[in-house]
Amino acid sequence: MSKVKVAINGYGTIGKRVADAVSLQDDMEVVGVSKTRPNFEARFAKKRKYPLYAPNERIEAFEKAGLEVEGDVRAMCEAADVVVDCTPGGVGEQYKDMYIDAGCKAIWQGGEKHDIAGFSFNALSNYSHAIGRDAVRVVSCNTTALCRLLYLLDGAYGIKKTRVVLMRRGTDPGDAKKGPINAIVPNPITLPSHHGPDVNTVIPHIPITTLAAKLSTTLMHMHAVNVELESSPSREEVAELLSSEPRMLLIGSDVGSTAEVIEMARDAGRPRNDVWENVIWEDSITVENGELYLFQGVHQESIVIPENIDAIRAMCELERDAAASMKKTNGAMGIGVL
Ligand code: NAD
């Protein structure tokens, strides 16, 4: 069977990881990645043998920098069955008509609004609804983590109400331009935050309220989660449920911070110290009077990568069964193994 041809528009934090994850699958291949600037990331894309493309008006800058490109972004999209848009939040909208004209399916990321595709995706929660679709939005890192967790809890115990405080990283480690330096920024200041409604684009029936602030850290986000359940499982039953899902990683108190989670991923030899799983501190799992409490860490740079792979598989009808696709993605990437 021929492989599905995937293009990645925007080879930044998410795009480079999507490209590497696609290359690990046996049913899809990278036919191009695009950059706007001929910087070190563009040089590494070439080193990894990804065909390099650029927006038409930027091609000259690449030539001047001695970096040969295969063509413009439109040509890249025409060569693809599906384009994964990994441009900065809000930019992907500009490319929508081009993707349609080029005749390729399109996946956008969580920085775009739900309406861009009319369908927001999380593999555990709604894989089957993405089968054969031409346009999908993979929800953000925070929403992906919340959807995975709440989907599992709702299926096992039923959810009456969810309350989450999100402690968000200021920016990504490779970004020297932004982020709070010596501040905690209520973000957004108006409450509740947009994260709850975003979870409802994937799982509409779960009552959820969220509050968020940005902290002066770049490594990971942290969620303080409180869920009122319909039934009252023991904390051990909740731990068993969560540990049975490969995209949830239960860790002990010896890993005492997000810094140590990242150090653990480095020690494990994970590429770019990525942690694709929700990181749940097992000792934080508490059930009191039918209410569950826990802390979960979210590695913002990598958690959505397996979801992009599953979205490609569903949209291109490579696999109709959600569990089979996730198992294949997990196996190829090493998810659930540390
Ligand atoms: P990034 O800034 O790291 O990378 C964006 C890439 O797009 C860069 O390579 C840049 O050169 C390129 N680009 C910029 N303008 C472009 C244009 N007009 N046309 C084509 N390419 C252009 O961004 P990112 O963090 O990878 O975010 C990409 C998307 O993923 C956003 O929607 C974001 O909200 C979402 N997302 C980001 C994270 C995260 O933590 N970084 C997590 C989950 C989802």
UniProtKB/TrEMBL annotation:
Some GO term, biological process aspect, for this entry: which one? glycolytic process
Question: Which pathway does this polypeptide act in?
Answer: Carbohydrate degradation; glycolysis; pyruvate from D-glyceraldehyde 3-phosphate: step 1/5
Gene that encodes the chain: gap
SUPFAM superfamilies given in the database record: Glyceraldehyde-3-phosphate dehydrogenase-like, C-terminal domain, NAD(P)-binding Rossmann-fold domains
Q: What is this protein called?
A: Glyceraldehyde-3-phosphate dehydrogenase
User: Can you state the subunit structure given in the record?
Assistant: Homotetramer.
Q: Where does NAD(+) bind?
A: 13-14, 111, 169, 300
Query: Where located?
Result: Cytoplasm
Pfam families, per database record: DapB_N, Gp_dh_C
For the ligand (D-glyceraldehyde 3-phosphate), the binding residues are 140-142, 195-196
Enzyme Commission number:
1.2.1.59
**HAMAP family, per this entry?**
G3P_dehdrog_arch
GO terms for molecular function, please? 4-hydroxy-tetrahydrodipicolinate reductase; glyceraldehyde-3-phosphate dehydrogenase (NAD+) (phosphorylating) activity; NAD binding; NADP binding
The UniProt keywords, alphabetically, are:
Cytoplasm, Glycolysis, NAD, NADP, Oxidoreductase
Domain Glyceraldehyde 3-phosphate dehydrogenase NAD(P) binding span(s) in chain numbering? 4-141
Recorded family membership: Belongs to the glyceraldehyde-3-phosphate dehydrogenase family.
The cross-references to InterPro entries, in alphabetical order and at most eight, read: DapB_N, GlycerAld/Erythrose_P_DH, GlycerAld_3-P_DH_AS, GlycerAld_3-P_DH_cat, GlycerAld_3-P_DH_NAD(P)-bd, Glyceraldehyde-3-P_DH_2_arc, NAD(P)-bd_dom_sf
User: Where do the catalytic residues lie?
Assistant: 141
User: Gene Ontology cellular component?
Assistant: cytoplasm
Q: Record's Gene3D superfamilies?
A: Dihydrodipicolinate Reductase, domain 2, NAD(P)-binding Rossmann-like Domain
- Please write the reaction equations for the catalytic activity of this protein: D-glyceraldehyde 3-phosphate + phosphate + NAD(+) = (2R)-3-phospho-glyceroyl phosphate + NADH + H(+); D-glyceraldehyde 3-phosphate + phosphate + NADP(+) = (2R)-3-phospho-glyceroyl phosphate + NADPH + H(+)
Into which EC class is this enzyme placed? Answer: oxidoreductase
